[in-house]
Amino acid sequence: MNAQADDADVIVVGAGPAGSTTAYYLARAGLDVLLLEKSSFPRDKVCGDGLTPRAVRQLVRMGVDTSGPGWIRNRGLRIIGGGMRLHLPWPELASYPDYGLVRTRMDFDHLLAAHAEGAGVRLHERTSVVGPVIDERTGRVAGVHAKPVNERGRAEGGPVTYRAPLVVAADGVSSRLATAMDLHKRDDRPMGVAVRTYFKTPRHDDEWMESWLELWAANDRGGRDLLPGYGWIFGAGNGTSNVGLGIINTSKAFGQVDYKDLLRRWVAQMPEEWEFADENRVGDVRSAALPMAFNRQPHYRKGLLLVGDAGGMVNPFNGEGIDYAMEAASLAASVIADARSRVNADSRERVLQGYPAALKSEHGGYFTLGRIFVRLIGDPRIMKIATNHGLPRPWLMRFTLKLLANLTDHRDGDAYDRVINALTRLAPAA
Question: What is the CATH number of domain 4-74+101-187+293-368?
Answer without folding.
Answer: 3.50.50.60
